[in-house]
Amino acid sequence: MAIAKAERLMNLALCLLGTRRPLSKRELRDSIEAYLEAGSDDSFNRMFERDKDDLRELGLVIETVENLDGEVGYRAGRDSNRLPPITLDAEEAAALGLAAKVWQQARLAGAASGALQKLRAAGLPEDVDPYEAHGALEPRIPVHEAAFEPLMLACRDRRPVLFDYRKATAARPEPRHVEPWALECWRGHWYLAGWDRDRSAERVFRLSRITGKVRSRGAKFTAEVPDVVTVRETVASWAGETADRSALIRLRTGAGYPLRAKAAQVRELGDGWDELEIPYGHGLDAWLVEFGPDVVVLEPAELRADVVDRLRAVAKG
User: What is the pTM of this model?
Assistant: First the structure.
């Protein structure tokens, strides 16, 4: 019923906005299918008056005009219903352009493009081109995981979710029941921070390890949602941003430039290998696995064991 009424209101608004002359009730009834289905004139009149009042409450200015024959007509003039122009300074326009460019290749590309077109129509300066390259670096947020969109909506609506998650050290995925807080992008990967109901603790999940569909649950959150800054710190900690010690690794010459950028010391070993001392924190084992045979962990032993476990899990499929 709500959808049918919304569609009827939209059709009435389009008729009133699109006409060059006032339309009578009879003409409006003949133009809108929902009004044609009204059982009687009284039923149509009541429906039309309610719809007209609803549109006016929503802000649509509807003019009532009486012609020479005494017949009343209705129209919504475009001048009366046009929003005031949006004025943006250079910094605001640049921020909007950058946001549109960042999401250009993500799942929100359609929404970003549509929003930009609306801003153009509302007065965004034509000389501001968010897709024009202005420097050597182009911002991009890659979103390839199917779980991103349903999780983004669940975070927005504060809805618990259920999904299958495969830990890096596990051969098979396990069901996880999570109250999602926020999505964060770190080092090219997306992470979900939230409250794991089964473990009664906060957890961080890498979206690329979510298998199958994300299912929503109608229940409310049971844990308090922390502020955005705290969530980002949690993701950074779980993803390996924080480090309180060092690790020693062998790295193939010419490979692993992100590791070299983090290294405190680099020593050439010869035979195509270098020795690096790098910061060691939570998540380093997962990062090292991404470099495959180009990396060998020397110490500490626990990091080496974690990397081996992850490689075995990958080998098992």
Answer: 0.47
DSSP one-letter code for 294: G
Res 249: pLDDT: 94
Closest by Cα among 213, 151, 145 to 178: 151
Say how far apart CA 69 and CA 22 lie, in whole Å: 13
End-to-end distance of the chain based on CA atoms, in angstroms? 49
Stated length of the chain:
317
Q: What is the pLDDT of residues 206-252, one digit of tens each?
A: 898 899 899 988 788 988 888 765 677 777 777 655 677 899 999 99
Among 150, 159, 153, 142, CA closest to 213: 150
Sign of CA dihedral 111, 112, 113, 116: positive
Could you give phi then psi for residue 173, rounded to 5 degrees? -75, 155
Handedness of CA 41, 43, 47, 49 (dihedral sign): positive
The one-letter code for the residue type at 105 is Q
Report the distance separating Cα 225 and Cα 231, nearest Å: 9
Q: Which range, of 33-42, 113-122, 293-302, averages the lowest pLDDT?
A: 113-122
Q: Exposed, middle or buried by CB within 10 Å (0-12, 13-18, 19+), for 157? A: exposed
Cβ neighbours around 249 below 10 Å, total: 24
